[in-house]
Amino acid sequence: MKSLIIVSHPSIETSLNQQFFKEAAKSLDVTWHHLEKCYPDGEIELEKELALLNAHDRIIFQFPFYWYSAPAYLKVWQDTVLEHATKVLKQKELGIVLTTGVSEKEYQAGGKEEYTISEFLRPFQRIAHKFDMTFLPPFVMAQFMYQTEEKKWERLIAYQQYLTLEGQATLANRIDWFIKQLRDNSSLREKDQVKQEHIIEYLSSKKEELEDLTFTLRELKG
């Protein structure tokens, strides 16, 4: 599975969020596609975009949450491309990665923003259904600059999984994903490789415990 990250941001070089995402995506088999950089004149090349969509399985719209929607470039992209994209989008996945300077807890009834982020993203969900796509739960990065280093590392891994994890984001699947990332890391020194194998063994044992527990719960329900 390959992911296409369609990024829209007018000042990406000074965006801490987008630079964080870009660095996190470097080690993955994904395509980073920044609209403002590719089309500085705003003229979207239809055939190029259709070819990109056709070559990928998971399409990600990534943008800052400007006035409860996406930046203008992404809207221009939609107006140019979607009308012609029925065949290339059918049965693929659509995900949304958005950043906001407002705390995520404010997006709810009684919060400052009153509505949930999912409610604001209804048009994107409708686009997915229109093209017979699977709409993924949105990935939200809220108030990045206020997060601790530990929290940023957690979000980095979560973002990488959002881009590349196949199937449902169950704990077992996330463990498998993490083990694969460790095994694919060929740059470790010998002493670090020993530590890595211990980590893999530990994660594998925990996965087996989880599967045993899941089986037991199913038996009890049955």
Automatic annotation (TrEMBL):
One of its GO terms (molecular function) is FMN binding. The keyword Oxidoreductase applies. SUPFAM superfamilies: Flavoproteins. Keywords: Oxidoreductase. Residues 1-161 form the Flavodoxin-like fold domain. InterPro entries: Flavodoxin_fold (IPR003680), Flavoprotein-like_sf (IPR029039), KefG/KefF (IPR046980). This is NAD(P)H dehydrogenase. It comes from Enterococcus villorum. The lineage of its organism: Bacteria, Bacillati, Bacillota, Bacilli, Lactobacillales.
